[in-house]
Amino acid sequence: MIKVMKFGGSSMGNIDALKRTSSIIANDPAKKVIVVSAMSGVTNYLIKCISERPDPSSMIDHLKHKYHTAVQDLLSGDHFKVCMQEIDTSLSALSEQLKIRWEADSDPVLEDRIFCWGERLSAILLSNILAGRGISSVAMSSEEAGIIAEGTPTNGSADLELTHANLSRTVIPLLDKGITPVITGYYGVNNNGNPVTFGRGGSDYSGSVIANCIDADCYEVWTDVDGFMTSDPRIVPEARTVDEMDYGEAAELAYFGAKVLHPRTVEPVRQKSIPLIVKNTFNPDGHGTLVRNQKCNSTEIVRSVASKGDLSIIKIYSSEIVYNPGLISRLIASVSEAAVNTYAISTSLSTLAVVLPTPAIPCVLSKLNALHENQIEKMTVKNNVSLICCVGDNMINTFGVAAKVFSTVSATGANVEMISEGASDVALNFMVPSEMAEDVIRSIHRKFIGG
Questions:
Q1: Burial zone of 63 (CB within 10 Å; 0-12 exposed, 13-18 middle, 19+ buried)
Q2: Could you tell me which CATH class the domain 304-448 is placed in?
Q3: Whole-prediction pTM
């Protein structure tokens, strides 16, 4: 059996977490590839430093203290010496990159290289910890493994075909020799040799890409929660773990609010029907959530309800929308040029409504105004709205689901601002005022899930 195990920042975050993580790996008999995120707080620190530009030596001293402390607590003898040397060598290379960056006003390509340095340090640290436990292991950067990416800085995508060919040469032979590779998550490398990150939380996606490209039997995501929940427990204290769901449900929840997985994690494993299991590093004996290509035949209409805030609705009014298909194409293309996620689109006889992140609204409006479309009569923006996502694999086949959901919403006094239904077989999405979102979630959970 071959599995990919991804460990997030909380699983790498401190001495206790690193001990737990290394024990989980050591106790698993399968051939495995380990994918790691940066230690908790490291990526945020690097991003903050790019904007504040502190002296590079002070940055390196801060990181050196963090990693040296972990090495001193967890390793001894030759393993200690080797790890300290590798950490210091990596930090010296980072210092040089920072000096180059400080000389430029802006360099998104170099910034992406810096942002993923925490993953490089994590791979070095964990591979040496495993070696100290007698596990043959090697740290590999995404460059060394051959994870090929395309796209723009902070918004990359993996080229699965090229990556598959590379991992067949770089990773599979190590597994055949009984060696455990520890590979950097979060980024790949483009044809020019530059790192391209996959967005925040992108290590989940990295692990899924690797699972796809080595034809793994299983992909495990180890994090600090027990799996997908029926809702956010901070909003619904009685929320419980969902034992099993299909790929579609997990993908919808990841994209529309649940913070368990990077939104793009599901697709690479779904392509090859590789089971995905979300597990808790701090509760390793827990069941977790199994995600696979199989309907669960649950009697529950709604399996989980999530929300996504900080959204706005742009409405574009034109009497030509329904009669001029080219107009809609130009409007959508203009929104796409802003390179932001679109969470819902709805049309009527004379209106196009688009749900977007609120911080992106000024840029999108600028793009739309630049079209100089005399057919646009006006544009309005409604801020402070949240998207509610109800997920369940029986929803599409159950009569009257929408009526029951919206009756429940109405009882809270919330107005439904926009509805997206029918595009997904497993989800019903709609917008409500942000100040009502938590009440709506609690009411839907109580009505359809319980508690």
A1: buried
A2: alpha beta
A3: 0.91
